[in-house]
Amino acid sequence: MTTEERTEYIIKWRHKLRLPSCISNENPYFHISPNIVVFQQFTPGVFFSVMVTIRNVTSVSRYVRNIYEMNPFFTVDFCGSNFSTMLAPGLSVTYRVKFMPEKKEDYHYQLKFATDVGDVIVPVVGILDFPDRIEVPATATKIPSLKTIFVRNVGDVAAAFTLYTDNPCFWIEPSKGRIEEEESLQFIVHFLSNKAGDFEANMFLEYDTGEKLRIDLQSSAENCHIRIDRGTVRLEETFLGLSRSKTVLIHNRSNYIVKYKWMLFESVEADNERKEHYQKLYQLIYENELPRCVNLDYYNVCEPDIHKLIYQRIYTDQLESLVKETFEYKNMYFILSPIEAEIWPQSSAEVTVYFRAIELGEITSTAYLEVTGREERIPLTLYGIGKGPILQLNVLTIDLNNIYMCSVHNYEIIAGNKGHIYGTLIYKEKRTDFGGTINVTPPSLTLKPDELKSFNLSFSSNHKGDFVERVDFVVKETLEVLSLHIKYEIDG
């Protein structure tokens, strides 16, 4: 409040402040300006002063004399060259009221004038109240800041109050309460913003008497220098069933302790959109589930009323779970550890990226770093490649020359595992192209890393001529096909 607003407030509510009545501007004898002296938002040990003027508004001279009462905090000095106790019509005298507070508390004093029409009293008060403007210390985005203020009830009755702001970035505690006579209360003004910039707000103080005061609030938030040492993590080929890891560093070059968490989506707005999408799905399922009670009742499974109550409870639980959902980063291929932690000022934190190869081929995902001190989330792109077992055959072509019709020939085929995981090689039986008969035993082989095993291949044909047949084996884990060819020439 300004001094003028504070003065009007004191005049209106002076019965609660235990202040005496004063001569109003409409008094037929004297005009006093100001008729109440208010010192507000003062500093201990610093002098403050106000000029008080009393003017004779009658047509005859009046007796006026200041009655000074000793006070360690207030002094009254006459301003002028000629001091006289008689004040001529239309003339005025001026006094300087000096105030030097010793500490931050409320002060009361009375400036008294003896006149020929009675005593005139001008209340003098030093009020420690809510400041006109509260500046909450600047901070970083998503990091709270606060300011503590103390207020004392200077009245002789308890005061109930309500405090609220017109900007959600600001709030005050306590927001409601009651202050007893002469009681002091601590208030904490909080500020928190998810965006960077300068912020202002109005805080309103409402008393139970209906009086409403406005206080200006101000603060600001900035983006801190926080970054990841790389934007992409590529993990080398990894055998199925195994995992591989790399580390990344998060650098905090600010003066704040920041908290981070890996998130699934790129922004808070995307989180909210996904929640709305899930809420619509839950609503659709709920609406489709309710009519099922007809069939359930027909087969004596559940009565309609009970079914409705059960599914209403399920629907309510789903919505409650959705409200609590934070959408932290979860992926079946990639794991980030730790998923959330703190980073001290001017420090770095190490995060390990694990890739689990459970599928063949290249896998891509993006995690987003939500960190206090930064307005936007920082993306980190992850790449990994799943690789199956490396199985090989010792021969690609078998040449058979000058063999007889219907004769059976056996050959040993060696299969080897050149990788680091188990692999299974399966013979893929099929009809031959030129009427020959091919049998492979055993039908499959499971090989450990660096292990060799053999298939027995038997071949016969009842056709004369030169032919080529293809024999296929399939790697079970990757569906990769390994082939060899049989070239043969049959004489009669």
TrEMBL record:
Where in the cell? Cell projection, Cilium; Cytoplasm
From which domain of life does this come?
A: Eukaryota
In this chain the HYDIN/VesB/CFA65-like Ig-like domain maps to 127-218, 389-478
Assigned keywords, A-Z? Cell projection, Cilium, Cytoplasm
Q: Which Pfam families match?
A: HYDIN_VesB_CFA65-like_Ig (PF22544), Ig_CFAP74_1st (PF24771)
Alphabetical GO biological process terms = axonemal central apparatus assembly; cilium movement
Q: Which InterPro entries match?
A: Hydin-like, HYDIN_VesB_CFA65-like_Ig, Ig-like_fold
Keyword RNA-binding applies: no
Q: Which GO terms describe its cellular component?
A: axoneme
The protein's matches in PANTHER family, at most eight in alphabetical order, are given as: DLEC1 DELETED IN LUNG AND ESOPHAGEAL CANCER 1 (PTHR23053), HYDROCEPHALUS-INDUCING PROTEIN HOMOLOG (PTHR23053:SF0)
**Name of the protein this chain belongs to:** Hydrocephalus-inducing protein homolog
